[in-house]
Amino acid sequence: MTETVWIMMWLPLVVMGLFVLKWLLKRVNVWIYESKLGEKRHYLPPGDLGWPFIGNMLPFLRAFKTSDPDSFIRTYITRYGHNGVYKVHMFGNPSVIVTTPETCRKVLTDDECFQPGWPKSTMELIGKKSFIGISFEEHKRLRRLTAAPVNGHEALSVYIKYIEETVVTALENWSKMGEIEFLTHVRKLTFRIIMYIFMSTESEHVMDALEREYTNLNYGVRAMAINIPGFAYHKALKARKKLVAAFQSSVTNRRNQRKQNVTTSNKKDMLDNLIDAKDENGRTLEDEEIIDVLLMYLNAGHESSGHTIMWATIFLQEHPEILQKAKEEQERIVKKRVPGQSLTLKETREMEYLSQVIDETLRVITFSLTAFREAKRDVQMNGYIIPKGWKVLTWFRDVHLDPEIYPDPKKFDPSRWEGYIPKAGTFLPFGLGSHLCPGNDLAKLEISIFLHHFLLKYRVERSNPGCQVLFLPHTRPKDNCLARITKTAP
């Protein structure tokens, strides 16, 4: 029998064997997670649990490494219809992705049915004692203790002077530096601001070192949890250890100063407030709790503000008519001001058009891809059952880019916000419900102050305006927005 005949005989068997193997492998997660549900498995949302162990992470990562990240969800909509609820296996867990305003609103606001459900790998990085890892009652308690020092009117009025001085100095320095990585410098700026507000720290050396570690930590949050050298998650775990050590030193020093009645500043920062915090029973926060809360606030606070500032300036530069309108609004505010007076909180609240620019930037970019929740019990949604213990991912991108809610959704158009009040669940840059981002007002204040001064005196000239855009861990130009910051003619 010739070799050709042998190949002809065995080839169909090999092909059939490969198909059978693929079918078996695709059934592993179904057997593990669905078989124990009994009759309920027939009421699961449509979808696909992917491959053993890795689930659907490969197509997710593949899509987000292209110029079309939304192709990931689009495959589910194409295969299973636009029902807004799909089963997947993501970040190590059987999960359900929800993609409509109604389903997102339900998941984010119904605390009887859903609780925070961040992956274990994320909690290892952000901290088990932070907002994402504690019980509902503890979460409410911490929000009460930290709300006023972060977002309160009095606190924002105090912060505004430091933020303005820091922004003015930074812009002046950047304009003399020639070509810079704009995003890198903006992130350092927002980190400096948040470190001062939270810990009264202004040491350039300390902040540069900590900011680098925060970058490593952030890159690992949405990476696959592979704790092997060379992988982002392994690097992120090492970064967390260094950050925890640095903050433990700060907490210890602050406690020792108090024991010795030593005060280094009249300003009471977030660290002071966390050390002083007591509940109704007089219980204070342990060091681990303080450190995890600081890590969470600091990481979220400077990342979101920095990226939003960069994209807002890019969009304004790309749309001269929008830039001109925003600039005229800022000039009117300055014109009404008493000469020599600094920016006030009242003035930032008069920046109606600039607020629309910021909201539109937050919508188009969708800084936070998703929020993680977990079903506390079997939950019915859109005719399907989300089993108790399954994770639920609220897919913000699909909501913000829904053409039925936002016509021509990828177009940057601040005017769409004029007189428009979004329905609950249709605009989710800071989440929704009891777990709404606790620093949202501070973030918008930072962004507003930066854009105010930028519009009045500066422009950004990108070196590579057609540069590839990356989407993980956050949307950004591959070159970190290589650009020149130039002063405009007076």
UniProtKB/TrEMBL annotation:
The chain crosses the membrane at residues 6-25. Its cofactor is heme. It comes from Brassica oleracea var. oleracea. PANTHER family: CYTOCHROME P450 26, ENT-KAURENOIC ACID OXIDASE 2. It comes from the Eukaryota. It is a single-pass membrane protein. Pfam families: p450 (PF00067). Belongs to the cytochrome P450 family. Keywords: Heme, Iron, Membrane, Metal-binding, Monooxygenase, Oxidoreductase, Transmembrane, Transmembrane helix. This is Ent-kaurenoic acid oxidase. It is found in: Membrane.
